[in-house]
Amino acid sequence: MRRGGDMWARRGGTRQLRSMKNMASRLSIVAVVAVICIISLFSMIWVTGPNHLQNFDVNELWGTAASSGWRPSSSPRSHWPPPPNESNGYLRVRCNGGLNQQRSAICNAVLAARIMNATLVLPELDTNSFWHDESGFHGIYDVEHFIKSLKYDVHIVESLPDVPSRGKNRKMKAFQIKPPRDASVSWYKTTALEKMREHGAIYLTPFSHRLEEEIDDPEYQRLRCRVNYHALRFKPHIMKLSSEIVNRIRSQGHFMAIHLRFEMDMLAFAGCVDIFTPEEQKMLIKYRKENFAEKDLVYRERRLIGKCPLTPEEVGLILRSMGFNNSTRIYLAAGELFGGDRFMNPFRKMFPRLENHSSMLETSEKLEENARGLVGSAVDYMVCLLSDIFMPTYDGPSNFANNLMGHRLYYGFRTTIQPNRKALASIFMDREEGRTAKFEERIREVMLNGQFGGPHKRVHPESFYTNSWPECFCQMTPKNPAHKCPPGNVLQVLDSQLQKETNDGSKSATTPNRTKMTANDA
Fold first, then answer.
1. Angstrom distance (rounded) from CA 269 to CA 288
2. What domain of life does the UniProt record list for this protein's source (predicted)?
3. Closest C-alpha to 254, from 393, 81, 61, 116
C-alpha cells in the first residue's frame, strides 16, 4: 500500500510540476505581450506627442475658447425678494489698494449690505495711498448706472444722511470697525449687524478681502457677478478712450494684450532679486524691508516654485515657441518696468509691434489729462478685456490679472494664455546654463496644456473673481437642473416684486428714511 501510495504521489507530483511549468510558460507569454504593449504605447506617445505639438495652429487662439453650451448668466434663479423699504442701518466701507483690489471690495460691500439688509453708502476708494490722485468712485465709475443696476438687490445712497442733534442737522456718524480678513457670512449677520443696529451706521475699514470668497449660496455669488460685470461700468470718457485705442489697433487685425508685471513692488514682494545689478538689488531689498514682512527668500528656490515674475525676454520666448511671429500686434499694460530697456530690448526685438495707452493716444496732453492713476489703469483694463488674446505674466497676488481673467471668461470665454511659471522655470534655467536641446518643444508642451479661457472647475487657490463658473453661467439644456438658464422674463418678475414692495412700504411708512434711526445716530 505504501508503494502504491508513493507511486500515486509521484504521479501527482509530476502532473503538478507539469502544470506549474505550463502556467509559468503562459505567464511568460503574457508578460512578453504586456512588455510589447507597453513599448508600443510609449512608442505611440513618443511619436504622436511631437506631432501633436507640431500640428498645433496658433491662429486658433485668436478665436474664443469652446463654451460647451455654457453662457454667462448672473440673474437670480430662485426666489430673490427686493430689499425691504426699511433697512437695519447704513454701511460705509473704505476700499484700499489698486483699481481691481477695490473692484473686488465693492462687490463684497454690495453683498455684505444684502446679507445685513443694510443701506450701502457709495464705497470710498482709497486713491491717496496707492495712486496719489483724487478720482474716487465718481471719477471712475458711472454712479447712476451703478445704483440703478442694483435696485433689485440693495438700497444705495451717495452719503450718510443728516440727522437732528441738539437742535441742528449734522451728518450721521458711523461706528468704525476693522473687519477680520475673509470674514464669514455669520460674522456679518451677528457682530457687524449688532453694531449697526446699535449705532445706526458702521464704517468698515480697511475693506480689502474682508468677506470670504467661497460661499455656499449660488445666489450670493451671482450677486457678486452682477456687481462686477454689469453694475460697475466705467465713466463715458474712460470707455471712449478705451474704444479709440481698441479700434486703432484692431483696424490692423487681431491683437494681444499682455499684463507685464515687472515693477519694483512686485519684484520686491516676490523676493526675486538675483538677476539685477548690485545697486538694483539694494533698492529692491530696501523696498521689501520697508513694505513687506521680513522673510529669508532664496531666489533659485522661489523661481523653481513659480513665485518669480516672468522677465520680458521669457515672455517673448514663450510666445515665439508657441508660434507667434514678429508681426503680432501687442498692447502692453504695464507700470514702470524695473531695470528699463536692459530687460525690455530682447522682447522688443522679438515683437517690435508694441503699443500702450501712451503711444495710442493722439497727444501727450490728452494722456496727461485722462489716463493716469486709476483712470490709466481703467483704460488698460478695458483694452485688455476687449483684446482677442490676454496674457498675464504674473497672476500671483495680481488683482488686475485675476479680475480680467474672470471678466473675459464671463464675457464669452475669450482666449487667455496663462503661463505655468512653475513648469516653465526649469526649462528657462536649463537654457541659461547652456542646455537648450528641444527648448521650444518643451515650452510648447507646457503651454498647450492650459485651458485658454474655457469653462473649468475652480480649484483653490483660484479665486472666485478669476473663475465664477459654474455659479454665474447657465445652459439651455443642462444635465443638472441647477444649471438651467433663468426664464427670459426674470427682469419683469424682479421689477414687479420691487413695485409691490415699494407700494406696500408707502402705505405703512412712518418716516421719510428707509433706515431705522437710533439715539446714537449723532
1. 6
2. Eukaryota
3. 61
Amino acid at 216: D
Instruction: Name the grid cell of 129.
Output: 495711498
**DSSP state at residue 119:** E
What angle do the packed helices 99-116 and 373-386 form, to 10 degrees? 90
State the Cα–Cα distance between residues 148 and 126, nearest whole angstrom: 24
Picking from 35, 92, 90, 56, the residue whose alpha carbon sits closest to that of residue 517 is 90
- Cα–Cα nearest to 313, from 432, 484, 406: 432
Q: Phi-psi bin for 373: left (phi > 0), alpha (psi -120 to 50), beta?
A: left
Alpha-carbon gap, residue 488 to 153, rounded angstroms: 19
Alpha-carbon Rg of the chain, whole angstroms?
A: 30
pLDDT in tens, 145-199: 999 999 999 999 999 999 887 778 888 999 999 999 999 999 999 999 999 999 9
Model confidence at 490, in pLDDT bands (50, 70, 90)?
Answer: confident
What are the CB-based long-range contacts (under 8 Å, 24+) for 287-293?
Answer: 291/265, 292/268
Cell numbers 444684502: residue: 114
Q: What is the pTM of this model?
A: 0.83
Query: Could you tell me the three cell numbers for 358?
Result: 501712451
pLDDT of residue 132: 55
**CA dist., res. 4 & res. 10, Å (int):** 10
Are 119 and 87 spatial neighbours (Cβ–Cβ below 8 Å)? yes
> Which DSSP letter does residue 164 get?
E
